[in-house]
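Recap from last week: sequence in, structure out.
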Amino acid sequence: MSSVVQKICVVTGANQGIGLSIVRQMCQQWDGVVYLTSRSEERGKKAMEQLKSEGLNPKYHQLDITDSQSIQILHNHIESNYGGLDILINNAGFAFKSAATESFGEQAQTTVDINYYGTLQVIQALRGLFKPNCRIVNVSSCEGWLGHIKSSALKSRFLQPTLTFEDVTQLMEEFKNHANNGTHRDEGWPNSTYKVSKIGVSAISRVLQREFNEIGQNQICNHLHPGYVKTSMTSNKGRMTTAEGAKSSVFAALLPEDTDIRGAYIWSDCTIGDWELKFDSIVKMYNM
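Predicted structure tokens:
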């Protein structure tokens, strides 16, 4: 391990879109080492060349959030070279297009496995490296509002004050089973695999912050909606640029030590939303 203590930030899914803009802005605004990670090493290194042509100097490491070995290799690299992690921005994600031909059950399996399990796996694998003042930023979505779930009984399970990672995982597994059987709507789930996966991401963000609070250190985890951004995931139909979409992630990553923004849902304009509100209320609040 280097004798020089350096601040380290890792951004997942960062070879394009919002992730690439997050790396760019972190390099511009933060005095530390910023790691651009991507599943494809070829695409990641191409993105690195782009940033270096702009006078920026991030570092690169391959990372597939669905591959435990890939995550462990990154863990070992950070541990041996830096000893710990200051900022983790979980941006990597996936969504099927509306024209997808896979069954709803297949889409549920893939989407939940990437967005929920991938994010959870990265957090759990790297958690031992989190420094006392670390910032964990989970990119959720407006689709991740709890209000998308219409069943009061189901919603109440996500709001249990003692909710654990295992509890959220159980809920995600129940959704996948119902999606496969075609009974998810009967059980109160939304008819969207992406919405459920991002509800899961938001839920574990709140669980992690509660655990941080119990430890008593200044570790913080927030989840956010980056906005309707023009990216490949939105088929370039978004209203915002990727630079605008990165704004809330960078804001959450650079929160000061004395912040009271903890376990919060941060909107694209860096205001704080209420994850528990009915989604209709959020639509009216933000004129969506």
